[in-house]
Design goal:
This protein is mostly helical and 104 residues long. It has one domain. Helix content is 58%, strand content 0%. α1 runs antiparallel to α2. The protein starts with 11 loop residues before the first helix and ends with a helix. The model has no long low-confidence stretch (mean pLDDT 90).
């Protein structure tokens, strides 16, 4: 009989908030600012606030959500990452990613 490996590389609470943030980022309308429809604009503002709250909660739990955020962030045509509560800039993210790739 095979036993389950119960060792985690990521704490459960980090995984939980990561899944919620990922869901919100996947479903976010990144270009809501360009909408002529007030309903879409309002929905986008509300989504942005929700993401920012989740990102701030992640930082409080010592979980840096920047890598996850930048998987979905289109950069052009949307608000800066700081509007979403992300502390690492796009430029810093590119430097980090380049270093990771050179270390591989």
């Amino acid at each position: 009989m095979k036993t389950l490996d119960r060792t985690r590389t990521i704490p459960l609470k980090h995984k939980f908030i990561e899944e919620i943030i990922q869901y919100e980022l996947k479903n976010h309308d990144w270009t809501f600012n360009y909408s002529d429809d007030h309903g879409y604009y309002s929905a986008g503002i509300n989504q942005q606030k929700r993401i920012k709250e989740l990102v701030e909660d992640a930082y409080k739990m010592n979980f840096d959500p920047a890598d996850l955020f930048y998987k979905f962030y289109p950069y052009e045509g949307c608000d800066p990452a700081s509007h979403y509560g992300v502390k690492r800039s796009w430029e810093d993210q590119l430097v980090k990613r380049a270093k990771e790739m050179s270390d591989e």
